[in-house]
Structures are given as C-alpha cells and as structure tokens.
User: Fold this.
Amino acid sequence: MLKIEEINDRKNWEKFVLSRPNKNFLHSWNWGEFNRYLGSKIFRFAVYNANKESVAVFLVIKIVAKRGSFLFVPQGPIAHDPNEEVLEAVSSHLKKLAVAERCDFIRVSPIVTNNPENALIFKRAGFQKAPIHMHAELMWILDISQPQEKILKDMRKTTRYSIKKAEREGVKIIKSRSPHDVAVFNEIYNGTAKRHHFTAFSKEYLQKELEAFRVDDQLLIFLAEYKNEIIAGAMIVFYGDSAFYHHGATSLAHPEIPASYLLQWEAIKEAKARGCTRYNFWGIADKEKPNHPWAGLTLFKKGFGGFAYAYLPAQDLPLTSRYWLSFLVEKMRKVRRHL
Assistant:
C-alpha cells in the first residue's frame, strides 16, 4: 500500500532525485522554485511504501490558461522503480488535487523510455498521448566521461575544424552568472527566435531561471565574443552528473566565424571540470522529419558525437469537457509550428 504526502524538505528531496539514474533538472528543487518565482502554484509530493521508505517523488506545477487549466508533472515522477503501482497512486492523488484546484486535465511528461511497455502502463491508468510536447522528448546526449582528446576525435571532422577555426580567429568565450548578461543573451536570443520561427521565452523567464539556479552555482551563461561583439550565447544548467544545453542563440553578424562550436566545446569542458559525465544537448528533430524546424540545429548537435534518447511523449489525463478545447488549440499550434 503506497502513501503520498507533501514534502517541504529540500535536503531529502534533492537527495532522492540525485540518487536516481533517470533524473533531470526539471525535477530539481530549484526548478520548482523557478516556477514559483514566475507566479505558478507548485506542489512537491513523496510516495512512501508500507515500510515508510520513499519510492518516488513528483513535482506538480499548476498551469492556468484560458483554454483550460491543468496540473503538470515535468519529466517525472522520479521513482526507484517507475511501475504501474506507482503511476496509479500518483494519478489517483493528482485527480483529487485537480478537483481541489479546479483543473481540467493532468499532463505528465514521463521520464521513462519511449517503448510499448511504458506506453501501456500509462494507457491502463487512463492517459492518452498529449497533442503537443511541453519539453524536449528526443534528446541528444554526449558521454563526456572519456578524455577530452577522445571526445574531440569522435566529433565530425567539420565540427573539430570549426572549433579550431573559432580559436584561431580569436573568439573569446565568457562565462557569467550576472543578471546583466541575461539581457545581453536575450538580445541575440530574440533574433534567433524570429529567424527560426519559434516562440522565445521572455527576458523575465530567463532572469528568473538564472536567479533560481545560480544560488547553487547550477547555471552559467556562455557568451562568444568576436571583435568586441557578442555573436553567440547559451544558458547551461548543471545538475547532478549532467549538463544541459537549455537555451541557445546566434547572431547574424560574422556568419563566417563558427563561434557556436567553440562555445559548446567550452561548455563541455566546464561540465567535465565539474565532474559531469553526460552533456545533454537537449532536443533534436526526428530523422524522419527532414523539414522539422530543428533540422539544422540537430545537424549541429550531432556533429559533436553522442547518441539519441527518446522519452515517452507527454501524456494527458482528461478530467472535464474543457480538455478538448485545449486539445484542439494545441493540435492547431503544433501544425502551425510544423512540429
């Protein structure tokens, strides 16, 4: 018999999450605080077995929208053994919470492998595939536990050349925790969003993310400077044994200078220096979708070497008829974005 209780103990939360191989900064304590800073209502729960041992934790974010409010679990629950019993207990608890919070559905972005067995577990619990993703579901990951020379050797030849060219041309990589540099990054980030037709996060969003993670030195802003001009940037989150390339941006200035390649290489070296064994390049496009908006970015990321890892797509549990309005809106949004 599993029991679920709200947890407000940061130390025990982090200890459990960081002990699991299937972890992600989206379930860190600081990601919860970040969403709280943005004005969202959050909940943290622990699942206990009959021996009062914690077997899972899950962060819940209440998303309020005109088309329908919902409870969202970002890449979780984090469990010792993510099985059907745990999911049934979690979904039962979430249903009660959703009623109390007047939500129309529950959405979970599972942190389990995308395979028929895991899909069936969610289907049996009443879930269905969500019309759109909330976070990247197909990741590109690089093993950085090996020596730097080996990582370089395994890169695509053109990637190695681009790193060395940027070094020869005098590109300087700046590492920063300063709120001022969020504004610098945001300027080229907005330009990138317009060129590639995606919706950029707001400057406030980026500032709050830095505020939440820099308290534990878990986020760095990387800026590539060439001839006193910032031409590329990235926001990298360090959590547990992994580094995550969460946001990236490039300028149209000096397109002949491959600054982004050197920037990523410096981020990888920083991750290694911090003891990380994985560098997560975040989302990529499916190879079966050559016209996907991320196709070019995917080619860039794969050039560093690594492997793809697919999470089970986001899952929805409808609770009211208003869910179907949200479903249609998101379905149309996905079509417009060519995702």
Summary: The chain has two domains: 3-135+312-336, 138-310. Residues 179-196 form the longest helix (18 residues).
